[in-house]
Each structure stands twice: as C-alpha cells, then as structure tokens.
Amino acid sequence: MSERGRKPGFRMSDEHRVKIQNSNILNALIEHVQGEREMSATQVSAGLGLLKKVMPDLAATTISGDEENPLTMIHKIERVIVRPSDTNG
Fold it and tell me: 3-class SS at 33?
C-alpha cells in the first residue's frame, strides 16, 4: 500500500507558492464581482495592482512580421445556399 501525502521535510518551490498566492488574489476579485465576497475599494485596488505585476497585459501585445516574413490577413467568406422556408403554413 502506498503512503499518502508528502514526505517529511517536503518544501514546495517558491515559484509554486507564488502561483498559488496569485490565484488566490484572482479568485477573491472574481468572488467580489460575482457578489460572493465583500471587499473595500482599497482591497480591490490592491488586488488589481498585484495582478498587474504578475499577469501579462494583453492589451499591449503586438503581433507583427518583418520584411522576410510579412503577416497577411486572410478573410474567408462562406456562402451557403438554403431552401426558402414555406411561409404559407
């Protein structure tokens, strides 16, 4: 039978601890938005400030190419022919 749990002396990595802390901040903010947790304006501001430090700002992400590998936009238009429905009942 295998033993359950961690062995004595186990230490979680600092990186893993930070991930858990960050997820707790995000969970608290989500619960506040859903009305499940009361938070003051100061707590919300602090939580958002901490998240900005650990999560990437996707609004500032730029996708670009270069002269050798330019980006191109492909627009796909799909036309579908449908049978008109019988409106006479």
Answer: helix
Angle formed by the axes of helices 14-33 and 41-54, nearest 10°: 140
Residues 5-31: pLDDT tens digits? 778 888 878 887 888 788 888 899 999
Q: What is the pLDDT of residues 30-70, one digit of tens each?
A: 999 999 999 999 999 998 988 888 777 777 667 777 888 88
Q: What is residue 89's predicted lDDT score, i.e. its pLDDT?
A: 53
State both tokens at 50.
């901490």
Cα 60 to Cα 48: distance, rounded to the nearest angstrom: 17
Q: In which region does residue 18 sit, left (phi positive, over 0), alpha (psi from -120 to 50) or beta (all else)?
A: alpha
Cα-Cα-Cα-Cα dihedral sign, residues 17, 19, 22, 24: negative
Residue 22, judged by CB atoms within 10 A of its CB (0-12, 13-18, 19+), counts as middle
